[in-house]
Amino acid sequence: MKTEAQVSKSSLTKALPPEIELSEALPRSQTWEDKRIANWPPMVWVSKSEDLKTRMAKALAWEIQAGEAQRRASQCRPVDVLEVEATEALNQKPLPEKVQVAEKEKSEVFFTRPCWSNKVEYILTQVGYSMKISSMWRFFLLWLHNGGCKLALREVTGRFFSPLILLMRQGNIGIWKVISPCIGGVGYTSFMVRSMLPHRLVLECGQCLDLFYLGQSFHFPVPWEKCPLLENSSDFDPECARTSPSMYFWYQVTLKASDRIEDGGSPVFSLNLPLLVSWCLVGAFMINGLKSTGKVMCVLVPAPYFIILCLLFRSLLLEGAAFGFQHLLLAKISAMYNMNVWCQAGNQVLFALGLGFGPVVSLSSHMYPSTNCLSDAFVVALVNLFTMLLVTSFSFCVLGFWATIITHHCNEKNTETLAKLVTLGKLPVEAQPPPNLADNPSSIFNSWLSRLHQPIKDMVLSYVTECNLEKQFLKAGPSFALVAFIETMSFIPGSVFWSILFFLLLQTLGLSSMIGIMQGILTPLQDTFSSFRNHTKLLTVVVSVLMFLCGLFFTRPSGIYCIRLLSEYWTVLPITIIIILENIAVGWAYAARRFLEDLVIMWGPLASPIIRWLWCFLSPVVLLALFVITLIHLSLKTITYVAWDSNSSKEVLRQYPSWGLLVMIALFLIVTLPIPTYFVYCLTQRISFTPTSQGKPVISSKSLPLIQPTPIEEVQKEEIL
């Protein structure tokens, strides 16, 4: 086969007319991140009158440049669309005087896309994005209440069915216009949903709150270990005395939560500063583009595993860890036949891997086209599953310790109550509890209670509260992630050290996810608006500032209730629709067979042809069933939220107001509006449902040149992205 230089030389010597020359060559290293380059000069053909020697010199220079391009085959390739139109066939006839380039794309053609320094940084960034705290906690709750070890089977099954697209060298907006023009609006919908995701991660998932708690962890003792004293008094705050210190510190000191979502209020100042610091950190890590992002991820992603292992080994030595580990290995057979559990597990897979949000595609668009993204997808999915299992093991041990300590305190409090009642004469002397419960309060108290005569036992039970370890263990709910873990850390000897370590873990996980999401926002903006490519640093700062300003709305006293409304009831519907349409676009609009043939060009034979069957038949059916079941479940369910009642100092269940539901429906219609709008536009413009380059690969192959324009003979054979 001829090399690029040979093909280029032969084509030029046969086809160049006397009046055509090649314009100034592009610089070798033009990237989005070089601010000094203001213009992106396209490669065009210019008419001039020159003698034969000059034209031959130009052709020779073009040949040398093509040879250099061949040696730079490991660099990134240009990926924008080049529309070349020729008015005459190339049967050894001269080229036309000009090769037309679309005016709208003239300033966007032939730029060098920045790439990851190495594959390790790329994989770490994909893994870091998938390590979202909310997904890990949701996985733990599903395991605890629904599945036991059977949930692992559902997780593996769901990850095997997941339609991962990691190979397209475009942002999430442009790529779906190429795969299926009529479904191009799904990219805009995904971008709008993704723009709302950072606020949920920063606030609900703890990045902003972790910074606040991290700063408070350097106090000794930690402020959530004991109730605060009243001003000019030795008595504890009565509101804190009615609940636990950690619960009081969470709702009243940290969030300053209102009793209802209807209650307004200005942003909480104690949260505004951590919110600002969080976005400053994200912006600083990404200010220099992929070069700084990749280096930062090399630290942020491995660090949590080291911290998790330290916390896991420490939790295994705690009292009650064995009880928690036993529940980890339990399997609930009845949950295997519960469709609601399967629906929750399916949604968990979508959120855990970040499918439909767009960063997966945006991050992979900066990788070399020759990279086997299929293996990358399996690596990311397996590492994500391993991380979930590791965090779940640690969480069960901590939950067992927490339930044991709370049960011990409950029995000690019952002992004090019974002793006072016996002293007052309300109970007989036989009801006097054991004097020493220091060794094992729960075991000693329960043994003493079981030896009492039934009449006295009934009298004792009427005055004490039930202290059941099993029920306390299963009380873990949405608030356990921070409140119970924080309370547990205060029980461990050396609570300051372990609290700092725990909040560092949450902070690194949150930053890793935020960086992936921010890259998923910046890349489509730079792909859509070419002027942003020359101002990467300014764009990063502007987006970070806008995200901070929008986040102030959710730092109000009722902001946490708004965040939970979006995360628990709203996000799942548009994301499921996005993934269904993306799956249809790849499996049917572009055709899975053709898609896999393009992959064969890049990587050789694939590992298994079953992928085509999954994309075309099984995945669409499973995703559609998931969407229908979720929609039915939400329509039949009362939309409620857990609120703080300052009068009783307890968590209460309240129903969202009707205007909250209307806002949720309006947001859903707004973010999904681009899909039908773009579809109608394509119908009016008579744009085909399938790609116009039918029969031609849309994935750049290894043989494409890096800088020079392809001769017309090659352009007729394949389309360059």
Task: Provide an overview of this structure.
The protein has 721 residues and is mainly alpha-helical. It has two domains: 135-406 and 476-685, Amino acid/polyamine transporter I (Up-down Bundle), CATH 1.20.1740; 418-475, no CATH class. It is built from 30 helices and four strands. The strands form two sheets. It has a two-stranded antiparallel sheet with strand order 1-2. A two-stranded antiparallel sheet has the order 3-4. The two termini are 24 Å apart.
Any chance you could write out the topology, listing elements then pairs?
Layout lengths: L3 H12 L4 E3 L22 E3 L4 H20 L47 H12 L2 H15 L2 H12 L12 H6 L5 H19 L3 H10 L21 H4 L3 H10 L14 H18 L3 H11 L1 H15 L4 H8 L10 H15 L5 H6 L8 H52 L16 H11 L2 H8 L7 H5 L9 H9 L3 H34 L7 H16 L7 H12 L1 H18 L2 H12 L6 H27 L3 E6 L4 E6 L2 H15 L1 H11 L27 H4 L6
Protein name: Orphan sodium- and chloride-dependent neurotransmitter transporter NTT5-like
Pfam families: SNF
InterPro entries: Na/ntran_symport, SNS_sf
What characteristics describe this protein?
disordered N terminus, elongated, 2 domains, 59% helix, mainly alpha, 2% strand
Brief overview, please?
Pfam families: SNF. With 721 residues, this protein is an all-alpha fold.
Strand count, sense and barrel status of the largest sheet are: 2 strands, antiparallel
Domain count? 2
What is the straight-line distance between the termini? Answer: 24 Å
Q: Which strand-content bin applies to the residues? A: under 5%
